[in-house]
Design a protein that fits this description.
The complex is a heterodimer. Chain A has four helices and six strands. Chain A is α+β, with helices and mostly antiparallel strands. Chain A has one domain: 2-Layer Sandwich (Alpha-Beta Plaits). In chain A, β3 and β4 form a beta hairpin. The two termini of chain A are 19 Å apart. The model of chain A has no long low-confidence stretch (mean pLDDT 96). Chain B is α/β, with parallel strands linked by helices. Chain B has three domains: 211 residues, FAD/NAD(P)-binding domain (3-Layer(bba) Sandwich); 102 residues, TATA-Binding Protein; 70 residues, no CATH class. Chain B is built from 15 helices and 17 strands. In chain B, strands 3, 4, 5, 6, 11, 12, 13, 14 and 15 form a nine-stranded mixed β-sheet that branches. Chain B is globular. Classes of the chains: A alpha+beta, B alpha/beta. At the A-B interface, α1, α4 and β6 of A face α4, β11, α7, α8 and β15 of B.
Chain lengths: 91, 435
């Protein structure tokens, strides 16, 4: 089962704007790009052509792993607005 | 003094710590507001998991009568998973009058139930509200800023979970590193209760907890788990974040591999995924505990890193720390003194209880495991499986030769210096526990 299929089981109310704000300049310099693999919801993808971090924030499970794993410590991470984000049924 | 939007105590976060704290305060007839960012208390909460009856009864004495419980855990299984083999130990307790039981629950359901009880007892709960910052007056915390409005209180209790951005903001804790937290991913898989009972050797509402060592995480600092629920099974794993960073692996791929292990796959066969989830676990232990109190503020539960990772305890430490914070708040309200001096009683209460005593007992555990996980969670589990392979294999080789070869193999596989380090670290742990 793919991660997208797994994420399909999570009830969520995504916001229109992202609550995850990577520092795009720092991302270019980042060597590990750890967020692209530690994230349990595959939120981050590195676009080699654009040299840019793509953020699928709608998938975010709000765990905070990316914030702590960020090599440059420059990921500005906040909780989604009170009415938004995941609503676990079983948790 | 401010009177608008002012209450006696504000609790941030509707998990076990926050609810235990708030209900303790409300029961004494004092004003308390609990602010939760989820659409209901529990909506953002995840654990394995099981709750423990004794500490839960201290907060909600009759919870077993009405709380949404799944199964009563009577079976504890420990499995060392090699690549194609495994060794299991089972402890089963069929005592009818065992009081200190645990129950598998779903946190969104259970926490919602706890919050309902707390509301009945006078706690005001505000949901769908994120606390963005704390309000300080001359260094003392006097309220919270939410997305919409400011609320003031004599005391603010931070029970805002593992990420506790608020504790960080007011400088009560250092930056969390990838060594201090585990990322946990979990799947709840629907299965008929009859199938669960057959596969896990249970009857009726009896439940089982599996602790899985090795498997897809062989040699990494991480463990897998299975909890049986009424009509589903929760399977997941927790692995320290630094392992993912260093090994460049994705947590859900580790879980997929774990589910495919030959010892595990038959337990889940024909199951249907109900929900996938993820959360961080504060694993850092004693050495990562932040300042627990300051003028006008206390920190409880995961936000205070109160997790005993050796025994898989967290919810009980959260509840007890919430209760102690609540009782300390009551004392401060009585004395009308909200300074760090009075709130320091919170830390004293924790120190006198099992909470800090246990965390201190295992204070070296994470250091030891970080430095020795390749051997304690890799080499030795493999070797235990190899021992049982040797012991159970009938191959016409004289037993004496087999035993000798097995012992010899340890010295061939391992550099003697590594063996000395293994032994030294084991002694260090034991000394920490027993001294």
């Amino acid at each position: 089962m793919s991660i997208d299929e797994k994420l399909f089981t999570v009830k969520s109310e995504p916001d229109k704007v992202s609550h995850l704000h990577p520092d795009t300049e720092q991302c270019v310099r980042c060597e590990s790009k750890a967020c692209t693999y530690v994230c349990p919801a595959n939120v981050y993808e590195w676009d080699e052509e654009q040299q840019k971090l793509l953020v699928n924030f709608e998938n975010c499970l709000e765990c905070g792993a990316c914030r702590i794993a960020c090599e440059r410590q420059t990921l500005d991470w906040e909780y989604p607005k009170g009415t938004k984000g995941v609503k676990f049924k079983l948790g | 003094m401010r009177t608008e939007n002012k209450t006696e105590v504000i609790v941030v976060g509707g998990g076990p710590a926050g609810i235990a704290c708030a209900v303790t305060i409300a029961r004494a007839g004092r004003e308390v507001i609990l602010i939760e960012r989820g659409s209901f208390t529990g909506a953002k909460n995840v654990f394995g998991g099981a709750i423990y009856a004794k500490p839960t009864r201290e907060i909600f004495p009759d919870f077993e009568k009405t709380a949404p419980l799944e199964r009563k855990i009577i079976l504890h299984k420990y499995a060392l998973l090699g690549n194609e083999d495994s060794t299991e130990i089972t402890y089963r307790n069929d005592e009818k009058d065992n009081e200190n039981v645990s129950y598998s629950v779903f946190r969104p359901k259970f926490d919602r139930w706890m919050a309902k009880q707390a509301e009945k007892e006078g706690v005001i709960i505000i949901t769908e509200t994120v606390v963005k910052d704390l309000i300080l007056d001359d260094g003392q915390v006097v309220g919270v800023k939410t997305e919409l409005e400011d609320y003031y209180a004599n005391i603010v209790v931070l029970a805002d979970g593992v990420n506790s951005l608020l504790a960080k903001k007011v400088g009560m804790r250092n930056k969390i590193t990838p060594y201090d937290v585990a990322i946990s991913v979990k799947e709840v898989i629907k299965l008929d209760s009859e199938k669960i009972n057959d596969r896990f050797h249970l009857k009726d509402d009896e439940g089982c907890v599996y602790q899985l060592f090795g498997g897809s995480m062989l040699g990494m600092l991480g463990l897998g788990f299975i909890y049986t629920n009424k009509d589903s099974v929760s399977i997941g794993l927790g692995v320290t974040l630094n392992e993912l960073v260093e090994n460049k692996v994705r947590p859900y791929e580790l879980l997929d591999q774990l589910k495919q292990h030959p010892a595990i796959a038959p337990l889940l066969k024909d199951g249907e995924l109900l929900e996938y989830s993820a959360h961080l676990i504060p694993e850092g232990g004693y050495k990562c505990i932040p300042d627990l109190f300051a003028d006008g503020v206390m920190i409880a539960g995961d936000a205070a890193m109160l997790v005993n990772n050796m025994h898989w305890e967290g919810t009980n430490l959260a509840m007890m720390s919430g209760k102690f914070a609540g009782e300390t708040a009551l004392r401060a309200l009585l004395e009308e003194d909200y300074t760090a001096e009075v709130l320091s009683h919170y830390q004293q209460r924790l120190e006198q209880s099992f909470v800090m005593k246990d965390l201190r007992t295992y204070k070296d555990l994470m250091d030891v495991m970080h430095s020795r996980c390749a051997s304690f969670l890799g080499y030795f589990p493999k070797k235990i499986n190899a021992f049982f392979k040797m012991f159970t294999t009938v191959d016409s080789i004289p037993k004496k030769d087999k035993y000798r070869n097995f012992i010899k193999s340890i010295f061939n596989d391992r550099n003697p210096l590594e063996l000395i380090k293994d032994g030294g670290n084991l002694l260090k742990l034991l000394w920490g526990i027993l001294k």
